[in-house]
Amino acid sequence: MKLFLTDRRYTSTHLVKIAMIFLLSLSSLGIVGGSFFLRKAFNNTGDTETITNITQYREIRNQIWSNKKQIKHFPNEIPQDATNVRLAYSPGFSQQGSYLQLRMKQPPEIIKKVLFKYREIAKHKYRGGNTNDHANLPNGVPTTFFYTSDAQESFPVTYEILVLNAENRGTAGFKWNHGDSYGVAIDSSASEIVYWVEAW
Predict the structure, then answer these.
(1) Which residues are CB-neighbours of 183 under 8 A, at least 6 positions away?
(2) Is the pTM higher than 0.85?
(3) How crowded is residue 196: how many other Cβ atoms within 10 Å of its Cβ?
(4) Using an 8 Å Cβ cutoff, are 168 and 160 in contact?
(5) Cα separation, 188 vs 186, whole angstroms
(6) Of 165, 184, 67, 179, nearest to 123 (Cα)?
(7) What digits encode the pLDDT tens for the residues 19-60?
(8) Domain map (residue ranges) of the chain
């Protein structure tokens, strides 16, 4: 009888130890797993760096940007006669929107043709500035910042910003909270064009 009680106490002590080890292991896994997911969440900015490598343009234009209607005015590939080509692409994350800009210098006769074409179909036209300036004008719409510039976030006044389309997807009390806009910005004097699209 005494042996039976000792065995029973010995067995229950072992069960408690095994349960404790199991619970400690489980909590350790929880801490390790939780810290991994927290680190991932806070390091998301590294995953959304702006891509500026022009060799990636074709892939971004033809495969990555999902709404083809928004980028149909972009060239399928960088033209042979283009110089000083710059790219800025951000896929966006969380509450931050995504954007794509392709800036290039082309022969003046091509810029003149493109300017004439897009002036005819533009729904909104602005001179210089950025999305905040344009959206705050009477009947204004959001456009873009000058992502492909080294020094500034606004387009100089030499640029005509031609909005081909802007869609408000916000709520009644929160206009432009979500939406998209796209178009071109053209500087005839510098013979430059910037194709742009923003979605937020």
Answers:
(1) 73, 118, 122, 143, 161, 162, 163, 164, 165, 196
(2) no
(3) 30
(4) no
(5) 6
(6) 165
(7) 667 666 665 555 544 444 434 344 444 445 899 999 999 999
(8) 2-42, 47-199
